[in-house]
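User: Reviewer 2 asked us to show a designed sequence for the structure in our supplementary figure. I'm pasting the structure tokens here. Could you produce the per-position amino acids so we can include them in the response letter?
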């Protein structure tokens, strides 16, 4: 048998990589990360399920069904950092899937850039903006189905160890995050978890208290080359220490989630979808400091 030509070999390799990337995009990783706290607070011992970037387009979107894998978890909070949808038909199915998750203190959601606008695949790939939606309508469906929403606002939740404040911004990517408004009712003596779709919001925090910012938007790079030969795309103005995970950005402790869904292309490579259970650990039992 004659050996395969170089072109055929490259083609076979490419098809194999494509098949792998298609499968990986539907292989949800449920991970647990311990978050060390610098000082004792009501966050110690709390568990938070961080979800982001479902990018639901219809009831059949894979990420919507994947949330059923998380229904066995019982965290204190479920925090969703935006881009719940890409197209309107996915809104109510995704919302209902989020509501089905069990959280002792509730599920809270903020808006991302895709929750503000819808575009065709061609528009999204080319970077053009599709027609804007009405975020009030999106938030209305969230509320109708029982999701707690934060839009440049805050809420205090009571735990056995004391109050924890949740602060949520509108979408930072389109410049709609207003931290003055979001922090207006915040007590700086109490711990704060900040929800902001894009980690670029770290530039706006300043001296405000933020024990941990939760963000998405980067998809973890979505397609990562082995060995870091090419830096993963994050679609952020800031150069991040990593495409996802625990990190410090502009002095702000942050967890950037790789997200559950995909955008533009239904592919992931070396970066599977993730649902992350954050376990907060107080001083004296923290495994290691944030990098």
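Assistant: Here is a per-position design you can include in the supplement:
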């Amino acid at each position: 048998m004659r050996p395969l030509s170089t072109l055929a070999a490259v083609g076979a390799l490419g098809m194999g990589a494509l098949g792998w990337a298609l499968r990986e995009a539907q292989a949800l990783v449920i991970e647990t990360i311990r978050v060390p706290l610098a000082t004792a607070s009501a966050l110690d011992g709390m568990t938070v399920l961080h979800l982001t970037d479902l990018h639901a387009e219809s009831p059949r979107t894979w990420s919507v069904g994947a949330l059923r894998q998380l229904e066995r978890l019982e965290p204190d909070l479920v925090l969703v950092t935006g881009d719940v949808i890409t197209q309107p038909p996915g809104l109510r199915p995704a919302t209902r899937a989020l509501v089905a998750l069990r959280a002792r203190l509730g599920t809270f959601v903020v808006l991302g850039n895709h929750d503000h606008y819808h575009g065709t695949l061609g528009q999204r790939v080319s970077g053009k903006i599709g027609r804007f939606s009405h975020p009030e309508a999106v938030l209305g469906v969230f509320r109708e189905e029982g999701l707690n929403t934060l839009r440049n606002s805050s809420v205090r939740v009571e735990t056995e160890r004391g109050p924890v404040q949740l602060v949520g911004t509108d979408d930072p990517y389109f410049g709609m995050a207003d931290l003055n408004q979001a922090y207006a009712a915040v007590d700086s003596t109490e711990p704060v978890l900040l929800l902001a779709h894009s980690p670029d919001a770290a530039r706006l925090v300043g001296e405000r208290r933020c024990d941990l910012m939760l963000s998405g938007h980067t998809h973890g790079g979505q397609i990562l080359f082995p060995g870091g030969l090419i830096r993963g795309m994050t679609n952020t103005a800031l150069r991040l220490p990593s495409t996802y995970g625990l990190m410090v950005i502009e002095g702000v402790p942050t967890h950037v989630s790789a997200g559950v869904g995909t955008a533009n292309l239904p592919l992931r490579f070396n970066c599977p979808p993730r649902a992350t259970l954050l376990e907060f650990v107080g001083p004296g039992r923290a495994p290691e400091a944030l990098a």
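For the response letter, you might also mention the following. Confidence is low (pLDDT under 50) at residues 6-18. The chain is about 20% helix and 20% strand.
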